[in-house]
Amino acid sequence: MSTGELVWGDEGWAGPTFPENAKRAVENSQLRRNVRKATTTIRERRAGLVAETPDWQQLRSAGAAIKDDVLEHLDRYLEEFERNATARGAHVHWARDATEASAIVTTLVQEAGQREVIKVKSMATQEIGLVKALEHAGIAAHETDLAEMIIQLSDDRPSHIVVPALHRNRAEIRRIFLDGMGDAPEDLSDDPHALAEAARLHLRRLFLKTKVAVSGANFAIAETGGLLVAESEGNGRMCLTLPDTLISVVGIEKLLPTWRDLEVFMQLLPRSSTGERMNPYNSIWTGVTQNDGPQSVHIVLLDNGRTRALADQIGRQALRCIRCAACLNVCPVYERTGGHAYGATYPGPIGAILTPLLVGVEHAPALPFASSLCGACYEVCPVQIDIPTVLVKLRHDAVLAEHHRAQDATFAAAANAMSGRRRWTAALKLAPLMRFIKHGGPPPLSRWTRTRDFPDPPRESFREWWTKRR
Amino acid sequence: MQPGCTRHRTSADKEAGSSHSWGVYDAPRMRVALFSTCLVDALFPDAGKATVTLLERLGQQLEFPLDQTCCGQMHANSGYFEPKLVRRYVDVFEGYDAIVVPSGSCAGAIRHQHEMVARAAGDETLATRAHAVAERTYELSQFVVDVLGTDDVGAYFPHRVTYHPTCHSVRMLGVGDRPLRLLRNVRGIDLVELPRHDECCGFGGTFSIKNPDVSAAMLADKMESVLDTGAEVLCAGDRSCLMHIGGGLERLRAGVRTLHLAEILASTDGEAPS
Questions:
Q1: Is A194 on the interface with B (CB under 8 A)?
Q2: Which of B47, B71, B112, B203 has a beta carbon 3.0–4.6 Å from B260's, enabling a disulfide?
């Protein structure tokens, strides 16, 4: 059993943990500027749109309530979805993990007699490492989202959930196209229009000749058996309508009970993700429509750790997530490290809770600590995921799973010193020792003093002053 | 004037309080306790002294139960849930009508974490008691504005000051603009707005040590904002965040000092009391 690329295990990505990855990231001035510029732009667009939506807080509450209902009755809604999708001509498959899901997709492509597929941007397929799995089976999968294409051509990793190439600037993108695209014009400039045109011509050839497409879905409607993909470029619409076979990999938490629930989510998602009132392309399909679009429609319902997350009473709210990445765009940590430092498919604050919830905190023990707990993520989350509280809960789980003896002993000693008046008063007598570590001291204190002075210790503690005064 | 001053009193409290708590008012005086926080007790007593000076000037008879130690936030945020620290807080402060904390972060932990820590340890009784005490626990600006009902404390502080709204005070507790309302009414103050004030300073408790590089990168940007204002004093309601930003400013010899909100509000002669 494998969870795929939830945590990046190869190529040294997940080797160093977050603090070490982050150290290299904060030293990279180009990365810092690219990420800051991009997140600031989306953040401001979102803030403007939220300000003009008077019932925003009610929409958030409604979104959270609908998703909580789905999670509470997931069994029922999943079977309802399967029934309705099947009745409309779709084939529904169930995958416990990344290995199973990739195997199902591979078999379907082989059964269609094809060696190439085109892909719509999808986090679920990133998560299961589908492109690599298909490659192993001799099937070439082409990403058709502009940013995902940039990532694929440069053998890179996505660094953001919605804007996966946000760590790249246009000069870098021009170089990637010239080196990797094969049919890029030799005189390609770094003008965004020229870059988009080169991509468009390259992709059109793929759209017209490829017989199988693979997608994810933003929402799955239990009541109808339909799927929805929201996107900006129209590449998704091409993939969803032109090929003969369409295979969609969908996390089991993507369900909405009814068609009407889209009223809430189609307001929450575009404002939170790209800072738009509406996505340029919203494609909805329900099974097979005779002689219109793909005639072979498959849906792979993916668990891959979701039922594990569901079992966590505090953590399960992370499954409300609609992958808008608003939390990434406001996160002061993400703004300074970018997404690669998290070493996982889902970066940023949501990744810091979702990844350990999906794979088990023992496989991603540093992630819950990759946050200052400032709470900016919770404030913007369109489905009110209390990320700081879940982070603290997961830190507790990590400490129980990990056993760092020196750290455990330090915290136990501190708690002990704080467990009685006399012990605490005695501990306070040690405060003057701080003058010796003002600029230095041994680790871990030196991790403070490398960039900050310690304060001068006071002549007397507050309680000494109070006691004398009475 | 004093909402909730009798609502939470038990008969035992009334009995204990009747011997000394009847003031000049008709209503029984609130029993108000100060929870200094461990950080103020150990390293920043001036913030505690200023809180006492301020609240006594506003007519409160503060008590400081000496059995208090720490709310357990540093432990909880580092993954170590210590129900014994929650129990200590509840035992020490359960008998008071109001508990004042000169820290948004610690007040936030008491209000939002104590129950969770008790529940994680399977102690429902403690969780219920913790919830009740947490509801009577106020961050300083909340206590002054909401409970005492004033936003002018009669302070005088003729200096250029910028205010950093700490994350937990704003996002966890929702103190809103209470601290700024209090500061705006300080005589002589030259209060300048901090650019990007809603951004975390990078302290985050043990985050500052576990992720020192990201913490330092966030600190650099916060210091840039502070220095942009030309202020001589950086003020906040949390000595913990100020220890971090102040430690960075001191390292740079930036010539900006840090003061707790209480220290400015307690001042009547133009200087921070000490």
A1: no
A2: B47
